[in-house]
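Weekly structure sync, notes
Attendees: PL (lead), two postdocs, one rotation student
Agenda item 3: pending single-chain targets
PL asked that the sequence for the first pending target be pasted directly into the notes so everyone works from the same version. It is reproduced below exactly as submitted, 337 residues in total.
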Amino acid sequence: MNDNGFALPEALRGRHFLTLLDYSPEEIHALLDAAARFKALKRAGEPHRYLTGKNIVLLFEKTSTRTRCAFEVAGMDLGMGVTYLDPGSSQMGKKESIADTARVLGRMYDGIEYRGFGQERVEELARYAGVPVWNGLTDQFHPTQMLADLLTVEEKLGRLKGVRFTYMGDARNNMGNSLMVACAKMGLHFTACAPTELFPAPELVEKARAFAAESGGSVTLTEDVEAGTRDADVLYTDVWVSMGEPEAVWEKRIALLRPYQINAAAMANAAPGAIFMHCLPSFHDTKTETGAKIAEKYGITEMEVTDEVFESERSVVFDEAENRMHTIKAVLYATLR
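Predicted structure, written out during the meeting:
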């Protein structure tokens, strides 16, 4: 056991957290174990200000509820100072280059979180910062969400290896990419159930299948909803149009993805005891501006998941959201301790 009773590999100290492609299954397991321990400490009300005196900055080019709150609470629980820079509060990419921003922030902070657009932006921050950089979301990958998802699956199903995991929707977005890699690394049987034109990039599929061959998992791509959901232990989806995509995309995407909605029929085709997961926010009703606008324009009141499934006992989306905080705490502690 390492300091404070955590069994964390020394190789994680000072490390960037940019994509799970860079992490071994053993390192991912160590982070999940640390997250479970931090969750127990939080639930018990036991202080764990193990990083007192350190400071981190949260650099957001895309807004978020869960990512911001999870990083802020995790940082403060660990005793750190936390600075949030919203999209209008940083000159990065406008009046100051990414490299220069990284070198300035790296002189003032012990770690930098980035949430924004291209993966190349967080990679450049990491190259110049001189301190750990954590990816809170890019257009290609969402690794902090992956840890929360894996922890949730482990908690609810009691295992990772052998779990049959189906992702439905736009399988070439950051969630589709990241879930495929995470499942392949950890020995789950991953299925992307989507229209062919929304399959993940072939080169990433090839990498994931190589990981799966080592872990005992598998990667399957299918357009067939009945086959893709049959006997699945997890059905997972995300919004049909990602943040930053133009509004004009909605009409085509709705037409493409309506057959891939997670509904009662899909859940009934899954394994007994299957769970429903979603990274949130979700358009399961018309109680949001976007949901109301889509309903008025296209006549669809539920999109990627029905309200019936979202609100059902099989939905674990709020456990999953809470686990963002515990898993991010594990990443912060592992890399900054």
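Discussion points:
- Residues 181 and 222 are 17 Å apart (CA to CA).
- The chain has a mean pLDDT of 96.
Action: rotation student to compare against the earlier draft before next sync.
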